[in-house]
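S1.2 Input.
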Amino acid sequence: MIQLDLKDKKILAALDQNARESNSLIAKQLKLSKNIINYRINQLEQAGIIKSYRAIIDFSKTNTTYIRVYLDLYEFHPEKEPELIQHLLKESTTSFIAKTVGSWDLVIYFSVTHLTQFSNQWSKFLEKFRYLIKEYNTSIIIKDLLFPKSYLLENKQDTTPMILERGTSEPVEIDAIDRQILSLLGQNARLPLTDIAQSVNLGSMAIIYRIKQLQKNKIILGYRVELDFTKLGYEYYKVDLELQDTKIISQLFHHCKAHPNVTSVTKAISDNIDFEFDIEVQNFDTFLQFMGQLKSLFPQAIRDYKYLKYVDILKNH
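S1.3 Output.
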């Protein structure tokens, strides 16, 4: 764990709100010099607290479907697990892979243009590794809502304007150059315009126009910073609720939205999961306290819940 002062936390909060903001504007916003902002961001990157910057793209507008798979692996073939992971890492359609503890051992997100593509890849994967898998759960992601990391500044005020919602939109026609720009900004949201222009062989003014159009059409929803939560002294949990009464979903959402440690809510087509959210807290006791309060707020409405704790994020595109 690395101790941060208030200036560092304010810089991280500003980058969490808009990771593509220039250092000059962040300096003006925080009433600090540009040199201080440059130095501190560089130090946060070198310390590994800032892992990356990425554009938040509405996958539904690019005709992309996310399939999430939870895996529970047998314990008697631990030497084969690296082979399974390497296979997944090499798959071009895997956009997110994480080692976890709790109800599941691995979480994988597949990014595909149609379900047949996933079905074919998944069948081949099972042919090779089914003997290692005790249980798996497959979900189709319909929508997710990404909240700002309000806990950075212990901020509990209404952050509705900063919530990024993706999914459930109609696809928008974009060309190959736009897709290249999205790919580049998805890997590094702070990539200079000149570098983007060189990569796609266009002028900087054309890149500015295209990015503005992608933002106007809400294909690019915003830009966020990816942090190493462990170095901030936090643990990252995903919670899947099975509800007795689904009428409370709206209330659950508003409760999660108002909590500074809840970072997202996801809607998916999945067996026995009625509501799911991600939360970053300081330790397991704090997590249990949150879940205890949740069950107290909604007595007899939560039938059961499963959780997993992220241990190591192996891939995130």
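S1.4 Remarks. DSSP finds ten helices and eleven strands in the chain.
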